[in-house]
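I'd like us to work through together how a protein chain folds, taking it slowly. To get us started, please write out a protein record for me. Go ahead whenever you are ready, and we will take it from there:
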Amino acid sequence: MRIRLIFSLKNKGAYLPFHHQYILAQFLKGLIVKGGREEFFNYNYFNFSGLKGQTKVSRSGLHYYSSLVTLVLSSPNEEFIDYLLEQVFATPKIELGNLVISPEYTEQETEPELETSNKFVCISPLVLLTPSFNDESGKRFINPDSDEFSDLLYESTLTRMERSGWYSQEQMESFYKFQVVPDMNYVNKLREQQKKFARIYSVYDMDVKYEVRGYTLPFTLYAAPEVQDFVFKCGLGAFTHKGFGMLDLANHGQAQRTEPYKFKREGFIPYKPHERQKPQELEGGEENPRTEEA
C-alpha cells in the first residue's frame, strides 16, 4: 500500500538540501525506534519519496512555499504503515532541517493494475551499488543502456524478495525474466541540454556516511506481475528503506488516485476532507544541479 502523508508547513520559505532523503530516513528511523516495537526496528520492506511541495531553488537548497507538503510512504505491511503513522501523528511539531511541519491527514493511493511490462519514473534516485566502508565503488557510473545496469537491479531485487520469505521456491524460480530498459531518448535529450540524470548522494548506514550514485530517469521494467508489485511497493535497487528507488507509473493520472485513509486505531482519523487540496505532483524531477555527474 502507498500512503500520502500531508503536513502543514509552518514557516514558508524555509529550505531543505536538494537531496534530503538522509534527513527523512533519520526522522523515520527515530519514530520507528520511539514507538518501542522491536520487530520493526530493523524492518526494511518500506520506501518513501522526497518531501513534495511548491519549491524554489536557491544556492541553499529547495525553499518550500506551499501551505501543505507531502511525503509518500509505501510498504506491503499495513501493520507497519499504521505503526509508523501513529508515531508521526503523536508528534505535533516536526523539524526537518530548516522546515517546521505538522501532520494533518493521510490519503491512500489506489493500487494500479500492473502488467508484465510497465513504464516507471523515479520519484527518488535509483541506486545500483551498495558500497563498503572506505570504498569508492558505490560512486561508479554505469551506463543505463548496459546489461550491467539491468543485471544489478535484477540481483538486488531477487535477493530482497527471497529474504522476505513471502514467495515459495517455485515462485522464485519463475521470476527469472527481468529486464530494465531505460528511456534513452530521455537520457540523450538531457545530455544534449547538459542536464544530469546521474548524481552523487550521501547515505548513512549504522552512523557511517557513504557516497553512492543515484539515477533519475524513466524506464520500462519487464518482469512477472509479482516482481512488479514488489518493486512498486518496496522500491527498486539499493537503500530502498532509506528513501532511494521509489517508483511511480509514468503518465498515470494523479487526480483519481487517492482516497481517505484511516489507520486501524480506534477513534483516530488522520484525515480532514475540508482541508484537502490538489495533490502535489510526485513524478521525478531535477535535483541538485551542482552535484557531480559522470
Q: What stands out?
A: The domain at 117-249 is CATH 3.30.70.1900 (Alpha-Beta Plaits).
